[in-house]
Design a protein that fits this description.
The structure holds two protein chains of two kinds.
Chain A: H1 6-41, H2 43-54, E1 55-60, E2 67-68, E3 74-86, H3 94-102, H4 109-121, E4 128-131, H5 136-144, E5 152-161, H6 169-172, E6 175-177, H7 180-187, H8 190-195, E7 201-203, H9 206-210, H10 212-216, E8 220-226, E9 232-239, E10 246-249, H11 253-263, E11 268-273, E12 280-286, H12 300-307, E13 322-323, H13 330-340, E14 349-351, E15 354-357, E16 360-363, E17 371-373, H14 375-380, H15 384-394, H16 396-404, H17 427-433, H18 437-440, H19 444-450, E18 459-460, H20 461-472, E19 476-478, E20 483-487, E21 494-496, E22 501-504, H21 509-525, E23 540-546, E24 568-575, E25 582-588, H22 594-611
Chain B: H1 2-11, H2 16-36, H3 41-60, H4 63-87, E1 89-91, E2 94-99, E3 104-105, H5 107-125, H6 132-151, H7 155-172, H8 176-195, H9 197-200, H10 212-222, H11 232-245, H12 256-259, H13 271-303, H14 308-332, H15 350-373
Antiparallel strand pairs in B: 1-2, 2-3
């Protein structure tokens, strides 16, 4: 480096100072540009983000609506219980905190699993339950040591409860934690998604599911200013929630109880309908289960017990299962015969005890036959031969068309889900049902079995009760429904589910009378006479026995068959015949003859409903007002 | 009479222009800290008093005597750094502190002054016979403490010490032929890092010579959203604070990001976000302008310095002040990686305040002795 004079030295230094100044200006210019970018150009964006930081919308979950029966007995309610809750954003080491908490309150591995799932799904400043339904002792123990647990608190939350336990569980259904599939469905609709923020439970089955929108209510929101740690600083605004509406059912709890009790340990279903309105008075499926088990997620043991039980208590037998109607089909066949003009009431056949068709003998259950049988007698003695011949004369298409009008083989449209369609057999149905061409063909012999309610016939008890109610009214059909009205708990405004006449089937009154009288005959001196001995009201009914096990020749001997292979017993009835107040259908699985096991159940139900008589052994319970 | 003489004695070493700027900044700092961290305001005022006293004392020392301190300070500083490396206390993952029994000191802080002092002294004694060799020696003198500090690791301080030393070397007349390629290489390097961000920020890529957290800082700078709850949180939240402040700001103590504690380290390294949120663009530019005046005043003092030592030292101190301001505001506003550099005179913390005021004191001393030494 060459030598420089001090003057040169200074001038070079000053050049460097100038260069440094330019650099400083340049860098500060960069900063100014950055500030302008952030504070002027992107100001709106960052303002929104600052507000999002600051303001947290906390949902206020509405109280779920109550479910009460027609007399006000509470079937589903909410009760307040203490939960232990953690706000993850305020806790440094979640696992350590939970471990420490486990020393004070009982925390099971399943609680931890559930909590972990909740943490993954929610924002860190939300308070999440680790344990539900703390005992008073646990609450006291935690409160004494609360200082050790910042970010952990006890809160009062509402829980769903079904106070009657296993009673009417298929009707009520249950709520459970919202699962991923349900969540995805909720999130398809933005409004619905907003309304379910904070909601943990949703109706899974029964009325809880079908009336979910009414029961849920509208979620309220509180605008809270929060700090970086998720602590609420102050409330900015509050939109109160709108509680869910109350369901008042057409169901009569006492009737339902008597019916459930009448089944004892037997499996089966009973549906009772008010013929003039379609209101469902009882909807029984036995065995039942305790819906309370499902509310907070059922534990594996109980689930296995329910799911793997050979009795299948979770199946709603009254609406989701269909059964061959057996002889309870006959009054409808007779009605169809009158409607289509294929028979007159007095037209009689001579019954030799069998019906020959296509080289096959269709047997009557009475050896030697019933002698001369007209329409009334065919119902009273349940003469198979009469209906073999009738079915053959009518033909399958006419049978399907006419009986289809009674709603058989199609869903009734009742206001809970899970309804099965059942099968009203026809060549078209068979074509759809079977894939292989050789199975698709309809054989004339199949029509013969259809005539006595066997063959492919298969209906839900709801359909049978529905058709019976329609028969009882002389052809006016109402849509069956469980809810009488929906009530707003704040204003008490009611939305009444009006009886909805679907249609009127054209049956001549004199024909209706013939069928009604024949069915009264069944009760008075026919197959139902024993069960109804001494009844002070006039009821109309029909017994039925549906084959579970197909017998190829030989006599049916129930005691030799396994219990599960025994026939199903059925009974349909309505009363009083002059002005029907109740129509019902009953099925006792593997109950044998309808007259033996199903008819006595109907007797108890009618005795209570028409006379107020409470059978011995059934716990008489005064429906308490809510 | 006595009071007048006393006043003259006190005021004599003070550069009125610098002092006015300093007072403005201290006043502003007090206002800002009352919003960001009112609990610490008393401690901050005590720190300020100590720092002003230190500044006054240094301003009283002539550059010639400062020159004599250069070598011993440097040697002591380097020895202490070695001691830190051997016996230092580990806190927050870094070994920066030395426990002397009665007090804990952070020797790296000393180097912020000792480094430019040493190099300015070196170039002073080599005045007139400057050779390329001297720049090599200067570079070695610089590399030793910077390496020790970077190893602690304390990237922020290392950058400040390194830049202070480089400024001296720059002002001493390092050839542009050497500076230009280095700057160009730097620019290309930064450009390359930004362009290949996706690849080099992949989790399994190791950066030679840098620690994992330093890589993380650079990567979160390039894309803060890559780690919104972790390392990127600071940058995201401070950008939100700055951006939401807008033109005029949300008003003193009305910044939601500040008051609801969304800004981390809001009284120390990120205090600028508080200013930007509550006083807006106007406040930012006002502060920037004040800093600019301090720097320009310092550079003017340097340009008029009587000796090589004075000129180099004043220039380096002025640009150090600039480095503090630029790096801090750059990192808070998201254009530079987050390194631990405080906002000069505004961030809470006694050590940095004292160091900066010592620097200003040195500037004042050089300013005052300019005329005395000129013939």
């Amino acid at each position: 480096m060459e030598f420089k004079t001090p003057e040169q030295e200074i001038s070079r230094f000053r050049g460097r100072v100038l260069a440094a100044s330019v650099f400083v200006f340049f860098c500060f210019g960069l900063l100014v540009a950055r500030f302008v970018w952030l504070q002027v150009i992107k100001h709106d964006y960052y303002s929104t983000r600052a507000e999002d930081n600051r303001i947290s919308l906390m949902p206020i979950v509405p109280n779920r609506g109550l479910i009460v029966d027609r007399n006000g007995l509470v079937l589903a309610r909410n009760y307040s219980a203490y939960t232990l809750e953690i706000t993850p954003g305020r806790v440094k080491d979640l696992d350590a905190t939970i471990d420490a908490l486990a020393g004070i309150v009982d925390i099971q591995p399943k609680d931890r699993k559930r909590f972990k799932k909740l943490v993954e799904e929610s924002k860190t400043f939300e308070s999440l339950p680790i344990r539900n339904r703390l005992t008073d002792e646990e609450v006291a123990r935690f409160v004494a040591q609360r200082y050790r647990f910042p970010g952990v608190d006890i809160k009062a939350r509402l829980f769903r409860q079904y106070p009657e336990g296993e009673f009417a569980s298929h009707v009520l259904g249950y709520i459970g934690r919202i699962n991923d599939k349900e969540k995805a469905r909720i999130e398809e609709d933005d409004d619905r998604a907003a309304n379910y923020r904070g909601t943990e439970h949703i109706g899974k089955s029964g009325l809880e599911q079908s009336y979910e929108d009414e029961l849920h209510g509208t979620t309220g929101f509180e605008q809270i200013e929060v700090d970086a740690g998720g602590r609420a600083v102050r409330s900015l605004a509050r939109i109160p929630p709108v509680p869910g509406r109350k369901l008042v059912l057409t169901l009569d709890s006492q009737l339902q109880k008597i019916a459930e009790a009448a089944f004892g340990n037997r499996r089966g279903a009973l549906v009772a309908i008010e013929p003039g309105t379609g209101g469902v008075l009882a909807l029984v499926s036995k065995p039942t289960f305790d819906p309370n088990l499902f509310v907070d997620g059922i534990d594996p043991q109980n689930w296995d017990a329910l799911n793997n039980s050979p009795d299948h208590p979770l199946i709603h037998r009254a609406i989701s299962a269909s059964y061959p109607p057996g002889s309870t089909f006959k009054p409808f066949m007779a009605t169809a015969a009158l409607m289509t003009g294929k028979r007159t009431p007095s037209q009689a056949i001579s019954d030799p005890g069998y019906f020959w068709f296509g080289g096959h003998q269709f047997r009557d259950d009475k050896k030697g036959g019933h002698g001369s049988v007209d329409m009334a007698k065919s119902i009273i003695v349940s003469c198979d031969t009469y209906y073999y011949a009738l079915a053959n004369d009518m033909g399958i298409d006419s049978i399907a068309r006419t009986l289809g009008q009674f709603g058989l083989g199609s869903r009734t449209g009742i206001d809970i889900g899970g309804e099965a369609t059942g099968v009203l057999p026809s060549p078209e149905w068979k074509k759809k049902r079977f894939k292989r061409p050789e199975l698709q063909k309809w054989y004339a012999g199949e029509t013969i079995s259809v005539g006595i309610g066997q063959g492919y016939n298969s209906y839900t008890m709801l359909q049978m009760a529905h058709a019976t109610a329609t028969l009882a009214t002389g052809g006016v059909m109402y849509r069956p429904h469980l809810v009488k009205y929906v009530q707003d708990p704040r204003t008490n405004d009611k939305r009444v589910i009006e009886p909805e006449p679907i249609k009127t089937i054209p049956i001549k009154p004199e024909h209706v009378k013939v069928i009604h009288e024949a069915m009264v005959g069944v009760i008075k001196y026919g197959t139902g006479a024993r069960a109804f001995a001494g009844a002070p009201y006039v009821a109309a009914g029909k017994t039925g026995t549906a084959q579970v096990f197909s017998l190829k020749g030989g006599k049916y001997e129930s005691h030799k068959l396994g219990e599960r292979l025994r026939d199903h017993a059925l009974f349909i009835a309505f009363a009083p015949v002059e002005a029907p107040k109740i129509a019902l259908a009953v099925l006792v699985e593997n109950g044998g003859f309808g007259a033996e096991s199903a008819a006595p159940i109907v007797r108890q139900v009618l005795d209570y409903y028409l006379l107020g008589k409470i059978p011995e052994g059934a716990a008489p319970e005064q429906p308490g007002a809510e | 009479m006595i009071l007048q003489r006393l006043w003259r004695r006190i005021a004599a070493p003070i550069d009125p222009f610098l002092f006015s700027l300093l007072m403005m900044l201290i006043g502003f700092t007090t206002v800002v800290q009352l919003s960001a961290s009112p609990d610490r305001i008393q401690a901050q005022l005590i720190n300020t008093g100590v720092a002003l006293a230190a500044m006054w004392m240094v301003a009283n020392i002539s550059p010639q005597r400062l020159q004599m301190l250069a070598l011993p300070l440097y040697v002591v500083g380097v020895l202490l750094l070695v001691a830190v490396a051997l016996f230092g206390q580990v806190s927050k993952g870094a070994q920066r502190w030395l426990d002397l029994g009665i007090m804990r000191i952070q020797p790296s802080e000393l180097l912020k002054i000792a480094m430019p002092l040493m190099l300015a002294w070196y170039f002073q004694i080599r005045e007139g016979s400057l050779a390329v060799r001297d720049f090599v020696v200067a570079t070695v003198l610089l590399a030793i403490p910077v390496g020790l500090i970077a190893k602690q690791p304390d990237l922020g301080t290392a950058i400040l010490v390194l830049s202070a030393g480089l400024f001296v070397i720059f002002f001493a007349g390092l050839s542009w032929k050497l500076i230009a390629p280095v700057m160009l290489a730097g620019a290309v390097g930064v450009g390359a890092i930004i362009a290949t961000e996706d690849k080099i920020c992949a989790p399994d890529v190791q950066w030679p010579g840098l620690r994992e957290y330093q890589k993380h800082r650079v990567c979160t700078l390039l894309d803060p959203t890559s780690d919104p709850l972790g390392k990127g949180f600071h940058t995201i939240q401070s950008e939100i604070a700055i951006g939401s402040g807008g033109l005029l700001g949300k008003g003193w103590r009305n910044g939601t990001q500040t008051q609801l504690e969304f800004i981390p380290e809001r009284h120390t390294d990120f205090v600028f976000a508080v200013i930007a949120e509550e006083f807006g663009l106007i406040g930012n530019i006002g502060l920037l302008f004040t800093f600019l005046l301090v720097i320009l005043r310092g550079l003017l003092i340097a340009a008029n310095g009587a000796t090589v030592f004075g000129r180099l030292l004043a220039g380096a101190i002025s640009l150090s002040f600039f480095t503090y301001a630029f790096v801090n505001m750059g990192m808070v506003s998201g254009i530079l990686p987050v390194v631990g550099v405080p906002l000069p005179l505004v961030s809470y913390g006694g050590t940095a305040l004292v160091t900066l005021c010592l620097g200003l004191g040195i500037l004042m001393s050089i300013a005052r002795h300019r005329t005395l030494l000129q013939k």
